[in-house]
Amino acid sequence: MTATGIGASVRRKEDQRFITGKGRYVDDYNRPGQAHASFLRSPHAHATIRAIDTSAAAGMPGVVGILTGEDLAADKVGGLICGWMIHSKDGTPMKAGAHPALAQGKVRYVGDHVAVVIAETLAQAKDAAEAITVDYDVLPAVVETAKAAGAGTVVHDVAPDNTVFNWHLGNQADVEAAFARAAHVTTLDIVNNRLVPNPIEPRAAVGEYDEAEEAFTLYTTSQNPHVARLVLSAFIGIAPENKLRVVAPDVGGGFGSKIFIYAEETVCVWAAKKVGRPVKWTSDRTEAFLCDAHGRDHVTHAELAMDEGGKILALKVHTIANLGAYLSTFSSSVPTYLYAPLLSGQYNIPAIYCEVDGVYTNTAPVDAYRGAGRPEATFVIERLVEVAARELNQDPAKFRRKNYVKSFPHQTPVIMMYDGGDYSASLDKALEIADHKGFPRRRRESARNGKLRGIGFSSYIEACGIAPSQAVGSLGAGVGLWESAEVRVNPTGSIEVLTGSHSHGQGHETTFAQLVSDRLGVPIESVTIVHGDTDKVQFGMGTYGSRSGAVGMSAIAKAIDKVVAKGRKVAAYALEAGEDDIEFKDGRFSVAGTDKSLAFGEVALQAYVAHKFSGAQLEPGLKEGAFYDPTNFTFPAGMHICELEIDPDTGVVTIERFTAVDDFGNVINPMIVEGQVHGGIAQGVGQALFEGALYDSDGQLVTASFMDYRMPRAADLPSFEVGMTVTPCPSNPLGIKGCGEAGAIAAPAAVMNALTDALGHENIAMPATPLAVWRAAQGSPHLRPEAAE
Amino acid sequence: MSAVSLTVNGKAVTADIDPRTLLVQYLRENLRLTGTHVGCDTSQCGACVVHLDGEAIKACTVLAVQCDGRSVTTIEGLASGGELHPMQAAFREHHGLQCGYCTPGMIMTAVDLVRRKGNSLDEHTIRDELEGNICRCTGYHNIVKAIAAGAENMAAEPQKVAAE
Amino acid sequence: MYAFAYHQPTSLKEAVSLLAGEDAKLVAGGHTLIPTMKQRLAAPGTLIDLGKVPDLVGIERSPRSITIGAMTTHGAVADSADVKEAIPALAELAALIGDPAVRHRGTIGGSVANNDPAADYPAACLALGATISTNKRKLTAEEYFTGLFETALEEGEIVTGVSFPIPHKAAYEKFRNPASRYALVGVFVAKRPSDIRVTVTGAGSNGVFRWTEAEEALAKRFSAKSLEGMSPSASGLNSDIHADADYRAHLIGVMARRAVQKAADR
């Protein structure tokens, strides 16, 4: 391993600009002549619009234009789409209601887009937006996930009972048969709380139209600018792809919420031509709470069947998934194919059956948020397994070990073919790091101080490296999920790597350069990673689902292989040897068995000067591209252990230790990977203890700012203890599995298992706020003095 | 419009501005110092922290006109002579940032913390003092490490601290 | 934010005369007012910044009291050696307001003038028997705090300082709202030469109040044990997503016992 190669904790190349304030985020872009957009948003969760009067507003100072859904319709601008078709059990396609970027006749959630005002200054745009009068006929709101189906009020006419789909996966008959012969059944009712992603950079967009070129440019906070361009071109109809450039520069965190194609950027780019000015919009935090796609929001009933010895026989799950008021870009895939196929967890479960009802409500759209479906699945199986072990009086760690998948490949009953892993190894290492042996002593000590201490496990698995295109196509995906890369070697040996992956905190500029440096033997400083601009990178599917390492870097590796192959040809001519005799190692092409060699940079120069070969023999230049389509998902897995203490007087929970042992396969940069784990854990702990988006019965978002929605803060968390085990991924050339979501997937179950262990009962839901924990502690059997261990 | 004169990163600036201009707007839009960010509307996230006469403040909750006659330091003014401030260097060394958006506010808060509490900071103190800075990426783990190390390095390189 | 006219007077007299203007409002640290204006929930026609009015900043210690100028920041109070020595509970309270950057701007005058029901200072004022000075008169805390965001301040009246008598012992315990970090429940306990006071902020639907049952129990014996099992009635307490009235009532008991313990240990 070199100091900058694969496996080294190279300090990040991108940090220099971030720590000096030189990062370039969308809101830092200002275009000549730019005007500012303010959206008039619905104050009602559900209402028909009788009339919109913009006349007073139009005369306000600085107003450049006011546009409504009528203008969109007149321009034949298409609606926002959901790119994954789900079919119900009966074979009917999901019921997708129209989703115009500005409301047409009806608003369906608080914050829904009614009109846009474009003015010289933002303050003027806001002033004018307030002067628009809208005549609403307010309708009752459908809010509760569990009560949405058949609520009486209809969100979209296409779905008269508010059900988008009744989907299922698995074999019901096998499951029923297994339950019939089960010795023990564990049952749980679970609410997976609704979350607001809250990257600290709010979404922003600057749309621009060039009359001479008849071309649009959109600067936007996107995790996947090419997908945004594809949707804006092919479905929304802004312009053909060759006349639409989408730039996603530095992006301040995404966590899924910046995958989607939203109303605001659609309107900004469309309106730029309409008003003849660049149009800028930057979300404030309240708008982000109201309109960024939320995450999770499941209500689930789950049952686990076991034999006498505690061997799992079958799993049965019924979930109602709240999809909000409209189907966001990938919303339908999240509670279906990103969820049910992971219900097998790390366990050998012979039969699984899962039903999911997707429902509309008058709430913000719900879509992928860090983990997307997999945290929900992990929470179901890991809570069930924990409770089952408790009910059977078995040690939760041993119970898990007994049921682990131990041989690979392993075909689950729910699509996935696990290709490799060693779950016991992660368990062993985690138990050691967490000092599991010392726990009883620590628990006694807590009890002496009047505190309740608990420990909880979470053996998570996720399907990452999204995804084999043919496979996802057969499941309803509207796009392929390969990745592209281009490696451009310059005559002097410096290199640009163009990637379809997008970095918004993941450190691609460093890790991708490490791969190139390692493979081509060039200094890391001479490698530049180019991403986030559709005019520079040919195409790409973007960054989500922990795919950039496994898929994005695999594409780069493939392009590098082509560069080396071409370099070998060039070197053969330059060194006057046969191509088969050329070896490439440590950045040098050499003739086998001789001391004749050329450095990589010298070969690059030869490739460009083209003096040693004719055009008939070889094309000049050294630039290669590759598309990499994975052959399987990847399966990162691990064991997270949470140890916490409850103050029963106040309900305050303190995370005392949090141990994570993950198997991400091969690791390019351990420092960055650990950082991803830390961040994921914080979000998972946030879901378990702090965060919950709450609507009142009228559909008003009660938690619409940081004043009401509790974000994890530094003092809420301990330093984490992170370890790794490595079983290289057999399904991609780099052996990488992906690490971005592990913490968010594993942590909620670990925390809630620890909390219920401390409490001595299972009657508590996420988020376990101090109020909830205080109440739950009243019923704790551990609080009776005789129960103290 | 109101006239305002202040010193930003050591340079005198004057402007005639709408009094409702927040300091952060003035810095970002008038001076194009875009390193100071806005992450919330309620003075909680801390992405906008700058120093006003040497003290950390939230630039989203101060009007530019309120800073008349005073001195502002932003993240762009922290490094001196092309060399990183020890706290900036520590954030890079300890991977105390991911997306970079909260980072300028974190670093400005950390430098102020050292001014008030000294160079030897324990984990508990650092976590408590980050009450007003929210990060969504790092889980704070490496930010805490970076601040502890940066604080120590500031003691070793006092000339840079004085330069701020 | 809506447009407004802005003034930065350099004397109290000038500030008072400007205050007579239509929709005029004072701004001290601005850490409540400016966020409210940003959300367009407040729209003063004229903003009068007290930042350049002299003699409003500073902490003075006399044998029996600590007097704090209205424009003194929370950070200055928290760090003041005089406050820490004379009334450590007051320094601790100031150190629990907001976060370090907020404490560099937020002021005691702004806090008591606003009388937010979840603010911390009102609990200290009422427990310690503070005197609120204005440009016109001096008011006891009981006279001054009149209800939710309500004070006895009249038109053209400006808070100039707050004077806190030094107690024998005192302590403040705060249970923060998990999201906003304002006081969900804050209890200030003061053992004064004349009496014992227990005040509660964050919980009462009518703002800060004295918990007289606890005061009576502590008058018999100043010990956390005297409050064992006690909590005030939940009726009249606030209820929201973070805490219902029962939980608040319970927390008042817990915070009061912890504050008494802390005070007794001093």
UniProtKB/TrEMBL annotation, chain A:
One of its GO terms (molecular function) is iron ion binding. Keywords: Molybdenum, Oxidoreductase. Pfam families: Ald_Xan_dh_C (PF01315), MoCoBD_1 (PF02738), MoCoBD_2 (PF20256). Residues 20-140 form the Aldehyde oxidase/xanthine dehydrogenase a/b hammerhead domain. SMART domains: Ald_Xan_dh_C. Coiled coil: none annotated. PANTHER family: ALDEHYDE OXIDASE 1-RELATED, XANTHINE DEHYDROGENASE. This is Carbon monoxide dehydrogenase. It comes from Methylobacterium platani.
From TrEMBL, chain B:
The keyword Metal-binding applies. CDD domains: fer2. One of its GO terms (molecular function) is 2 iron, 2 sulfur cluster binding. Keywords: 2Fe-2S, Iron, Iron-sulfur, Metal-binding, Oxidoreductase. It comes from Methylobacterium platani. This is Carbon monoxide dehydrogenase. InterPro entries: 2Fe-2S-bd, 2Fe-2S-bd_dom_sf, 2Fe-2S_ferredoxin-like_sf, 2Fe-2S_ferredoxin-type, Beta-grasp_dom_sf, Diverse_Oxidoreductases. Pfam families: Fer2, Fer2_2. Residues 2-78 form the 2Fe-2S ferredoxin-type domain.
Automatic annotation (TrEMBL), chain C:
Residues 1-169 form the FAD-binding PCMH-type domain. The keyword tRNA processing does not apply. It comes from Methylobacterium platani. Transmembrane segments: none annotated. It holds the Pfam family FAD_binding_5. PROSITE patterns: FAD_PCMH. InterPro entries: CO_DH_flav_C (IPR005107), CO_DH_flav_C_dom_sf (IPR036683), Diverse_Substr_Oxidored (IPR051312), FAD-bd_PCMH (IPR016166), FAD-bd_PCMH-like_sf (IPR036318), FAD-bd_PCMH_sub1 (IPR016167), FAD-bd_PCMH_sub2 (IPR016169), Mopterin_DH_FAD-bd (IPR002346). The keyword Chloroplast does not apply. GO terms for molecular function: FAD binding; oxidoreductase activity. This is Carbon monoxide dehydrogenase. It comes from the Bacteria. Keywords: FAD, Flavoprotein, Oxidoreductase.
